[in-house]
Amino acid sequence: MDFADEVLDRLARFVVEGGKRVRPTFAWWGWRAAGGADDGPEAASALRAASALELVQAFALFQDDVMDRSEVRRGEPAVHVRFANDHRSKRWLGDPDHYGQSAALLAGDLALVWAEDMFTEALSHMPDARERARGPWRAMHTEMVVGQFLDMRSQARGDTAESTPLRVNRLKTAAYSAERPLHLGAALADANEKVVQALRRYGEAVGSAYQLRDDLLDLYGEPAQTGKAVGADLREGKRTLLLAVGLRRARERGDREAVRMLDSAIGDPGLPDADVRAVADLLAALGAKKAVEQRLAALLREGTRSLADAPITPVAYEELRRRADGAITRAT
């Protein structure tokens, strides 16, 4: 099996066998919200274009796992780990880990190229729709990369400002996961500006809430639910809003031991499970967990309200409202 076959097999399995399909789903409901058909040739083309977002997601996750040194993704070894294991088991020359990381980055590049091909070809007979969707498609790519850089830089700088994770969440998660996919779908259906703005406000609020939910699940969820070990983000040094609020509250109380405990735990790759649980308990005692839960719920309410007066189809309104309500249930 040559490299092309290896990448094709890994990429196909990753995209087809896993993931929640969040981004294509939001793109589809952006299309439906703006009056796009639920069946027929144009609906099929819109769905295929939306599905290209899964390849963009593969690109993002392959690179994210390399940068974060994550060993697990979706409950299985991360792609760079799989490539490294291939190298190691076959006794090839050189460093297996470097090979695995390099191969994963190349696989991510290929996924991005294929995403562009899929998006363009899906809309080949809808040139006007394709051009309308180009704006959100391009913006999403830029925002995703900028958000990832800010996330990486905040870890390197040890940034504790609460504004930093909010900005990272806005670009890396909200825009990329919900706002821009909704915008893209609506653009395909030639939505008017009022519909576009309502969907984008909903997407920004709900997408940010989804990230806060994931931050909570990192410390209070179950591996079967998250697909990774509890405390993985904490060990990687991710500067989440949960941690930023906890540090601020500990400092306001003059609790030096709590500050020391949090500072020492963030970014410690060998942090024992018992210490992860202790950090989770401390953040709950400081009121950080409750504060984030309240912000999450407020964002979801805000997102739903943004749709109330928008001229979107009733079926799309009900689906998007249901998705906001479901996020609260899964986070608490």
Automatic annotation (TrEMBL):
Keyword annotations: Magnesium, Metal-binding, Transferase
Catalytic EC class: transferase
Cofactor requirements of the protein: Mg(2+)
Protein transport listed as a keyword: no
CDD domains named in the record: Trans_IPPS_HT
EC number(s) recorded for this UniProt protein: 2.5.1.-
GO terms, molecular function: transferase activity
InterPro entries tied to this protein: Isoprenoid_synthase_dom_sf, Polyprenyl_synt, Polyprenyl_synt_CS
Family: Belongs to the FPP/GGPP synthase family.
Name the UniProt record assigns to this protein: Polyprenyl synthetase family protein
Naturally occurring in which organism (per UniProt): Streptomonospora arabica
